[in-house]
Amino acid sequence: MEQEVHDKQNKEWIKQELNPILRGNCFAPSTEIIDQIGGTALLSADTDKIKEYVFESAKLPEIRGASMILDYLNQGWPSDNYPNDSQLPSNLREIFLHHGLPTRRSKDDKQDDCIVYAGGGSLLALVPLDLADAIKADIEKIYPDETSAATISCVWQPIAVSDGEGIKFSELMARQSLLLRRAKEEKESLPFFEAIPYSRRCESCQIRPSVGQVPPDGRWLCLPCNKKSFRSRKQGGKKEWAKEFAEELSESNDEWYLNGRTKEYVVKNVEIASEIEKIAYASKDKKSIGFIYADGNDIGKFLDNSKNFSEYKKKSEILHKAVRDSVYKALRFHLKVTQIEVEEIHPFEIVTIGGDDAIIIVPGDRAIDISICIGRTFESYLSEFEEFRGQKVTLSLGLVVADYNNPVYFLLALAEDLLKNAKKKNRECREGAIDFLVIKSQTALSTDLSNLRAHYPWTIESYGEKAILTSRPYTWSKMNELRRTVQEIHKDLPRTQLQALCRSLRKGRRASTMFYRYQWARADNQRKDLLSKIERKWGVESINSPWIKQNPKDGHDCFSTIWEDIRELNDLMPSSNDEIARQELMQQKGHSIGGEQVHES
Ligand SMILES: [Zn+2]
């Protein structure tokens, strides 16, 4: 009986409040309606310290498992005919169904949905005011219950405040963000486990005490790591992203990726990499990986500037698809099914694709091309939508290339720093940008990025001027240009000469300018043409070459150079036979090369 009243009330709420609000018709229903159905709350939630949880263990199965658990909680579909009496909710959508609220049950479900946005660990939803507290409590309970380690912060505000004028959407959203930020700041980090002396530490995260040996390999794991490991084993190692990726392959367009196999064969037989080492195996040196962290610029602000919830929803859906499609396309174009002994694998790991960001691990030699393809595809994809014409939405990206045996959380920290640099560049020139770092030895890791680049061998100070041995970060168009320059160099300038030039750069500006002039004088006409072409393209004045004069900083003359960047990229380039074959195939298919491709509709 009580349930019936409840259901009736919810139905009334959907009709009178949810639908009009979603369509942007009103923020403020009449007092009468509020009395009758209780008004509406805008509820949002965001997972706390999401990357710490995902990357606390360096092992791929646990990283993957953690990300799968969070994705399921955040974006998972309800199980069939949920809710049953006995079943407690196991993800966000089931929580809404549990309270009798409307939400879609699958990707193609067209029914009303009180969820405005769910992705990247966050949630935005409209709920009846009198249910807001109960839903908040359920959301905040389910995360620690399911993970034993991760928490989520949830806040709400009533949005039907008066009969009068509704407030502006952007103000409403700004207030909501502020509430959420405060809730996160106030939250104390609650320890889930006491560190018991003499207990055996978890072999995976090395953080918490283990609770016992876990099959099948008998590792000593803590409870959260055990849950992660269980989750990634339960799915038979097939992570959703890779599965989805494989299912979308098309025989006619993805010949390169399929590598002589049919699509059906790939979907059925090709596995995801069980260890990071296997992704590295697909690189030409068989040991390097690229850790890519891509993130849309100022997306929060962009979405908050929508006119209403319906526009917000539409924009965020397009954004999510833009990230997803750009990542998939870059992987399809630049990688291929890889055979390691008897095993056939997809040589990548999609750690996460959120609403506007992505973290992926790829073979080291392909990482630059994949990054360029992601950045450029994302931007060209969005430019085709009406909603994105007024304001250009761009993407920044941080990339670290390193040996696979470096700790993953270390690569993440560096990629985050690089991403920050790229974002700084974006603020300066209003274009999406990339910053990257190639790590040769582990000693380079002893200091953080800004420290690393402020000193020799990155910055040389002499005669009261600063010479910086890089021109990073690059905007996407410049990065693409650099990639092309590298391709020309690759053909026409021997590697030993390039290395000698870079050695001279480290001796300072005067020594390297002398070296460069000497090489120039000895060069044949073809080489001179190549060098002048590069100088023109990059705005190098002959008098300064191989350096580019920058604006003075702190009263010092400043110079930078592209040659060290060229050398690193040149060393990274995939083996030439392979690359030529790939490019020929792409050209046959009508795709242009060098990350230039725009998305096919
Ligand atoms: Zn652990």
Write a structural description.
The chain is α+β, with helices and mostly antiparallel strands and about 600 residues long. It is about 45% helix and about 15% strand. The chain is globular, with a radius of gyration of 27 Å. Zinc ion (ZN) binds next to helix 8.
Question: What's the SSE blueprint?
Answer:
Blueprint: H1 2-22, H2 31-37, E1 40-47, H3 50-55, H4 60-75, H5 92-98, E2 115-119, E3 122-128, H6 132-147, E4 152-158, H7 169-186, E5 212-214, E6 219-221, H8 223-234, H9 240-248, H10 255-258, H11 263-269, E7 271-272, H12 276-281, E8 288-296, H13 299-304, H14 309-334, E9 338-340, E10 343-346, E11 349-353, E12 357-363, H15 367-382, E13 395-403, H16 408-429, E14 433-438, H17 449-454, E15 459-462, E16 465-468, E17 474-475, H18 476-492, H19 495-505, H20 509-522, H21 525-537, E18 548-553, E19 556-560, H22 563-572, H23 576-588
Parallel strand pairs: 7-10, 13-14, 16-19
Antiparallel strand pairs: 1-3, 1-4, 2-3, 5-6, 8-12, 8-13, 9-10, 11-12, 14-17, 15-16, 18-19
Bound molecules: zinc ion.
Zinc ion binds at residues 202, 204-205, 207-208, 221-222, 224-225.
